[in-house]
Design a protein that fits this description.
The complex is a heterotrimer of chains A (351), B (290) and C (634). With 290 residues, chain B is an alpha/beta fold. In chain B, 22% of the residues lie in helices and 31% in strands. Chain C is of the alpha/beta class and 634 residues long. The chains are: A alpha/beta (351), B alpha/beta (290), C alpha/beta (634).
Amino acid sequence: MYFLTTQDINDLARELQKTHAVYGPQVNAQTGQVFFDLLAESDLPDLEAAIPSMPVKEILFPQMERILKYSYDTQAQSVTLEKQYGEKLKVLFGLRPCDLAGIQCLDRFFLGQEFVDDVYLAHRRQSILITNTCTRPWDQCFCVCTHTGPAADEGFDLDLTRLDDGYLVQVGSEKGQALADTHGWATAERRRLAEKAAVVDRCVERFPDQAKDNKAWISRAMNRITTGFVKHEIWEYIGQQCFECGACSFVCPSCSCFNIEDVTLCGDSCERLRTRDSCSFSGYTRMAGDHNPRAPVEDRRNKRFFCKLSYTQSKKYLRPGCVGCGRCQLVCPGDIGLPNVVQYIRRETTE
Amino acid sequence: MTHSQHHSEACRDTGRCPIVTFPEVVNIDEIKDEAPEVKTFYLSFLNPEVAPYFRIKSGQFIMCTVFGAGEFAVSLPPSPEHDRLHITVRSVGKVTDALHALRPGDKLGVRGPFGNGFPFATIKGKNIVYVAGGIGLIPLRSSIVHALQHRQDFGRIILLYGARSAGDLLYQADIEEWKKIDGFESFITIDRPEPGWQGQVGYVPNLIEKAKVPVEDTVAFVCGPPVMFNAVIAQLLKRGMSEDDIISTLERQMKCGIGKCQHCAIGRTLVCTDGPVYTYHQIKTLGEVI
Amino acid sequence: MNYQACVCNLCGTGCGQFLKTDGKRVLGVAPIVSHPVSKGKLCVRGWHANELLNTNERITTPLIRENGRLREASLDEALSLVVRRLGECNGAADEIGLLASARSSNEDGFALRRLAREVFKTHLLGVGAEAGHRNSMDSLSHAFGYPGAVGDLTRIDKADYILIVGTDIARQNPIIGGNLHAAQRRGARLVSLSSSRTQMAKLSTKHFQQQPGTKALVLNALAKALHALRTVNHARHADIDRLAGYTQYVNALRTISSVALEKASGIRYEEIEEEAQILDAARSVVILFPSGISGLDKRTIEAICNLAVLTDRMDDAQSALIPVAGISNLQGSFDMGLSGESGHSVFGSLADPDSPLRALFVVDHDDGIIRNRERIAALELVVYCGAFRNPFMDLADVVFPLTAYNESDGTYTCADRRVQLTRKNTDTPGAGLPGWRLYQAIAEQAGHTWGWRDAAEVFLAIADTIPSYHDLTHHRLAKGFGIHWDITAFAAAGQMKFHEVQIDYPKSPTCEEFPFALMVGKGRHFWHQNNLMRKTLIPRREYDQTLLLYPQGYVEICPDDAQKLKVKDKWLVHLTSSTGTSMKIAVKVSPDVQPGTAYIPYFIKNMISDFLIRYDNAFAAGEESIIPVRIEEK
């Protein structure tokens, strides 16, 4: 446990930039929108910025990624293959706790099952995760309902908490400890923990007034979804509002579905593209030979919320698939972001 | 190090070889017309170090890349032992059409083998009934060959197989070979009578009655189009077979084969890693229609 | 920061879109949260713009046809060839036609028109999808004094009463559809008038499911009921009765017979009277209707304009009347004067085998289907300019590469007159040029000096020439999310007028022999511009999904009719029209169409070429076109 000044934090960011690709929150000047993206050499992570508009998974599981390139010579009947990704030293500097929870979901899913996803692993293995405790909620937040914030409890390498006169830095891994050791940071006094607790408490207290957009007390809804006791009409009502844009999956920090397609470049050269996919699309489950086991849109919606909120799925992630960031509600042209679906289900329950 | 060398190393280190992310290149040694729109491709690995470690279980599948067209999931018909590596594919879409246009000597990419495979360990000593319709025989072939190679481990081995016409019957030479094996019973049918056809006529579910399929100490492996599948299941259940003894293999659109892309999710299961082989009881309780 | 703000280039909503780009390639997409219309949302097309912009199906160099094949050429060679060959044609005698793109920027459109007039001396201009939008522009000009939307799209968010006429906005302009759905949830009354139960209709408070072809009648009946209320309630009566055309209009409305109305449209007048009471009580009214290729016919749009004027709510700060364009810069293309003039239609010249047309200059042809293909193939010279490869290239003698929308600066005017600026954020693959630069180079080759150095300078010329753009500059547009062009530039703006109406009760053209009223539309799909969608991965898969289930296309009929015909979903049937054309097609059984009607999506290729060819006016009539057909089991 260390205590650093803002200057120390900035120095750390600059120093890491020399050896790592450093990603952090930045504000787009034209629109005021926050992105968690690669920092230019002159830029520092904006640790006061609001929750990033897009999930941080973009760095570890990009929207579109070339994973393989090959060229096939039909005359010689020969093929050459080339791997298209490599490991890079990355720092994710100033992650919000909800985004960290998203990464934990992805880690458990991509790395913790029978097979390891090599592509994700290549992004993830050499990444340093530095979280940033939220000192206030934003309109869309409901991490207090999903137990993913406002402070992170595990899974980070370093965790920063803004206190009145500087940052409390907590170490969460050997990687983080190594960073601390090489810098010889000043040890924080014990009272700093109490100060942090006060910051977190103040943040939680502000939720009722500030975070008004979404409330999703998900445990009751989880029970209903797991046991299948949600009425078909509710799913139909939800399906009717689905514009089939896929946005909810694209902005969800824990959604991991992808599509793989071989795209011809020119002549016989071909790229294998891995792009994010969404279970809301009707072509998602279609098989060659025109059998589609999951055609109606409400079935597809049902699938998504089952994936996020059922106990069985939660076992895979060791937590519910929802991290309380509220992004799906923001980008949905209908009214079926996850928090609202939870509301529908709960409303039905209370009726 | 090329990815192929990397695979060699992984094989030596672990003693097994699931090719997970990068396709290993195979040569098409031979192409056989199996039926209209159905061809069998005999394959061999270009990297000789991988081949010995590429050990399959009956009921598993591979992800096969047709270079320039894409990748698709295909079940493995060869038996785990003493069999040439091959796949049998009907052309049903862009990628499989491209596969059918290839010549011997062309190359394919292979990842796998993936999937759980048939539960042979638990069915020793039992009778096995194979019920297949059309190309549904492809995923069962491996298991049939395996069972016949270990004839002494099982009771009766019965094949009920049907196709639209005599020309659509797959693996006819194989079936002739199998018939020579003692204790192998086969009932083959086609949908409509046709000149020169001496065998059964009618649909597969009707064979169950004809074959007097046993129920005690018996497992049934069922694979075929949905209509046939449902009718067969109904018949078997009617005869008193338990849902746990009816075993099938499911097909879904797959992109990764390793449980990540989630295209093949049915309810709470992923067909690629949890399946593709399920008991009927499991299928019924997956939480989604199949 | 790799995220660059721009305007989505697909439909006419004009959503705010970030492209994630390293300057060489587009890596991803994000929505702009603070955009006043799209508010952080994008539809399936917008979310996959990265796939489109990464396609390898780009035109990257000039091409010249030689011995029947296109070969690469230098820009100079292609320019001089085009100028020489077009120089041999007499533009003033209608020998040169230009087919502009409703997807091009205003700068490109403006330069193209200048090229047509100044260099080629031709009047033969046209934009794809223009017929529908011209109806909208003409009607709006007459009723409100300027050719553009009244009010803007943000008014959906506050209006009391919203009427959507025709089309499935939830599919065509999904983000507007989303805003409408949000309005309904906050308590606005959302009313749909469409003969099919579209997704938008399902999300509406009230759906009037009229017989095909009777939208105008139903709208006029609503006007009659509203007028009756207003006459009773003198206190609320404004100056509407002094507007030009009022007397004729009201007299015509009075003649509407409730019996005949119900017989023709299937809707009871009492139901309309109830609706009129709610409309009467509304303080603000927003009316939306489709414009462009899925647009409405003239009399329906006139009925809409009349109703809007009659509500007496159009000057409320939350009211609007918006022709919702299906293509990004359809409105801008009209503003730039790219639509044909009466008597000088490039489409007319192409359709007429005896027209003097000898050469055609085409920009970014967008439709999946090329009409008048034989006529075009027989022309002496066809020049194609585009960013993406396109079947039109097969007909072209010379091809020029253009930039995609994110590869050059440009402004786009969306459905509600909002002019927005997109900055170049990614390099062009190959030798693609911004349209205006290419047209300037052609002009220069022909001896004209325009002297534009960048798109901002072209825009200065636009502001100088086009009155409604007089106060706009790239500099002003660079801040915020665009500016609506100035309606006060039109002298007549604010002077409302009624259209002359004739009440008729369209009889269904169906008969015993041809009992189904077939509607041809694309209003219910995301995929209308499938030329672009086919170059993506996920949207293409979704498009194919429709056709995979129905590989030969489908005709949608209701379950009752299917039962009568003894057909089931996916069965093949013969569809025969009253003119004798016929096609084999699958049946799609759906409760969303009414008994006696059938719906066929426009994008099925052989349908257009073989089946619809004798119904060219079906395109002009848009959503309201009906073809009497017979459906028989194969």
